Protein 1
Amino acid sequence: MRAMTYRGPYKVRVEEKPMPRIEHPNDAIVRVTTAAICGSDLHLYHGMMPDTRIGSTFGHEFVGVVHEVGPSVRDLAVGDRVMVPFNIYCGSCFFCARGLYSNCHNVNPNATAVGGIYGYSHTTGGYDGGQAEFVRVPFADVGPAKVPDWMDEEDAVLCTDALATGYFGAQLADIAEGDVVVVLGAGPVGLFAARSAWLMGAGRVIVVDQLEERLELARTFAYAETMNYTEHKDVVVELKRTTGWLGADRVIDAVGAEADGNLVQHVTSAKLKLQGGSPVALNWAIDGVRKGGTVSVMGAYGPIFSAVKLGDAMNKGLTLRANQAPVKRQWPRLFEHMRSGYLTPHDIVTHRIPLEHIAEGYHMFSAKLDGCVKPLVVPGGE
């Protein structure tokens, strides 16, 4: 089969790889029909995540058709159209029993923190991802779900991570009616978090970014006020000024490990890799939220030290809430919002890239060329 493979920082290509096979009776093999490149994939592409091995296939957002099932699979059959959450989880361990699917204890040898994730280095289990023609799906009766007949395929693929993660980020922020919510980052997750904040009762939503094409989507898709941080000497002071000098009630960090905005912090993390990620956005969140407020962390960070202002968070009495999204737990509410017309996720899709051209797709997305906000990947596409 044809699959994207990692060859080192900033180097990916499409190669022939062996067809995935059934390794456990609960496995399924899925023929991928649509995948996506996520902002989190760029952390791998840039060499930010440890133990990202040569030959790995990325991609944790994908939908497809069941090609083969193991002998123990009961809920799926060959030919079913399925959407696959990025979490790989057993469904029965201590954490899964509590709905913490992203923290499953049985699918990742490094499971002191995160569980298994498709295509996201050996720190999350070493599973190959869906930027390929076929992918092995473990615990096929637990994670995947049949795509509803009424759901558009591009909406379905966004439900497997970006939409569910943005919605979960707004949930973690614990938004109360009338709250002022600031979202740092206007990538897909930030856009979905901002849109979701309205569904949870926000009275005002402000999105911070530096790219005008993303800020335009924040205005037209998420109906938010916007702030280009490059136009302000101190973004925290500007956030406080626009919130009556108190700060926002809730701040959502949808940026993560490669945040710009502070040259020294960006260089020590993204370039020299002395930290698990640039703490710029998270420190802006801590400084920009009001005393007693809540900071929700959805941006992906590496598993090593980051210079976060924990003392300021403690002295301000902040609540910090963070996790990888337990995707399938969000689906029932998201599906209702979509059926009711409150959400059309594929409105943020800007590019559709054939799998054979994925190297160009990664370059375009990484370098923010051609207004690329959310690229989809189409195996066999022309």
Note: The two ends are 17 Å apart (CA to CA).
Protein 2
Amino acid sequence: MSQPCIICVAITGSLPTKANNPAVPITISEQIESTQEAFEAGATIAHCHVRDDEGKPTSDPERYGRLKEGLEKHCPGLIVQLSTGGRSGAGQARGAMLSLRPDMASLAVGSNNFPNRVYENAPDLVDWLAAEMAAHRVKPEIEAFDLSHILKAHEMWKRGQIVDRPYVQFVMGVKNAMPVDRDVFDYYIRTVKRLFGENVPWCAAGIGSNQIVLNEWAIAAGGHARTGLEDNVRLDRERLAPSNAALVARAAELCRQYGRPVATWQQAREILGIPLNA
């Protein structure tokens, strides 16, 4: 259990607003400042969304470009991961920012239910997004909301649609999708290791109050952890999280409890095979 643990901070997302928590960073400058604090607290991946002037989600590549530039300036070495999620745009607009060549981008390889809608990821769009990531040398993070998504990622990897060995993130606790279930979580780990190799890195994310649960499960099991205000705006039932950095610090404390060093940005890039200035 001495392997360093990568902490990913999901800084903003598409849904949380300042009405939910005043600490949610909305503007580009707020996001850069919040991410810098989280980086200093131990986060080495920033999972990024951007908002328009009204605070609504967008896939605008110009805004992503300004955010990426600011993060690279103020958080040298940080792995910048841009979202291609479906709340920010439709069709190929979801991947318009990939030409910016971020270090990573999220890739959902299948559809599933969300609380009030279907999160639709049609096969032709998934293929196109994967091809764009390969063309621009962007490492995908597979967002697995279901077991089938892990199996689909393996199929795409074997076909060469995903160039590098996938980095799979288990997402649990989304209403109407996969609940937080320890037996399922353990089976996810076994499946990823069976398909991609015993030493393959993987990550887990829990939504809402389940964030700390998945943080602990992942850290204890040798995986990597995602935290941040996108997925959870509270420290507990009574307290809002004061910052993304506070949630990162909470995950870092779990790493210490389980005897795992928090990965530096150099270690995170080595584990994931992402060279600096690729």
Note: Residues 7-272 form a domain with the TIM Barrel fold (CATH 3.20.20.70).
Protein 3
Amino acid sequence: MIVPVALGMIIGFLSSGSGLGGGFLVVPFLIQLGKEVKVAVGTSFLFILMVAISSLFGHAKLGNVDWKAGSLLAIGGIIGAQAGPLILENISDQSFKRFFAVVLIGTGAWLFYQSRAVS
């Protein structure tokens, strides 16, 4: 009981400060606990929703929210998010894990490259 709460606190801190959402850490943690991939992904969205709402309030108080851009992105995201569960329902856990790993490695490489770019 204490490990998920402690991990949630750490991931919440990292998520609210980085904008990464936290699913990239929550999903592997839940899989490690023995959850099926579909359940891990679905459960991570409950976590992300709660952390996102809390983070939104914190950032809004500081004036760090572009409401128009965020709303437009959300419209597209809401529409696109309906396809995710359908796709996940039709792929194997092994295929998901490989795809997820490639996305994480690609995102990490892109962030590393961007951090080296001269502004």
Note: The chain is about 80% helix and 0% strand.
